[in-house]
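B., you asked whether I could sanity-check this one before it goes into the benchmark set. Here's the sequence:
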Amino acid sequence: MPVSIKSAKEIELMRTAGRILGRVHKELAREIVPGMSTLDIDRICEELIRSYGCIPSFLNYEGFPASVCVSVNDEVVHGIPSKNRIVREGDIISLDTGVIYKGYQSDAARTVGVGTISKQAADLIERTKLCFFAGMQYARAGGRLFDISGAIGDCAQRYGYGVVRDLVGHGIGRNMHEPPEVPNFRQRFRGMRLRPGMTLAVEPMINAGTWQVNWSPNGWTVTTADGSLSAHYENTILITRGAPELLSVTEEEEEYLNHMYLAV
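And here's what the prediction gave me:
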């Protein structure tokens, strides 16, 4: 399947989907407090998505039973919400979710702290964002896809973190997962040239310890092999003729993110 180049109309639909998803993440983060279950988080997320006239893209996708992946502490991705999993003060939670708006998808992840968290946890969350923006320096038309990957991995390694290798980012559009794959670590080759109109979900998954992971018996949840904390930061981006456009952020986020972009 070739990499799709989106038309102006498709880009506008994806831009709307992304803005909505950014608002969902912002509003969902405000709702998380100690003592709630991860199933409570899923319920709130689904209600938010549907309140904007969108469909939760994760719900029943390849059998996943929820609208948001809620991954706590050493869980990297694909944590399945449960009424028995209660979040506690000091936990960090990776929230990975997506929306479908008029047939087009957006995918984004944020890692948030519950109450007061440790400096180690706060640093991991912030530096995972920095890894994303290190990659964005190379997300330009005419550049090479795997230069994004190399920059993300190099940034994480400067802090002594492990970069998950078993899972990668991806193209996105009418389908949640489209070509190309976008690894978060340096590759042997530089990959394909980027073209305006490509839309990618770039998603560093960074562990405080080893890069190695374990897969849970449920077939979904991925955890760090050494029990260390993990953080996840993802946006749907558009390759343009200039700087990449982050589709899955709110208007309020843009000023902060522009400062972070300049900091790497």
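One thing to flag: The mean pLDDT is 96. Otherwise nothing jumped out at me.
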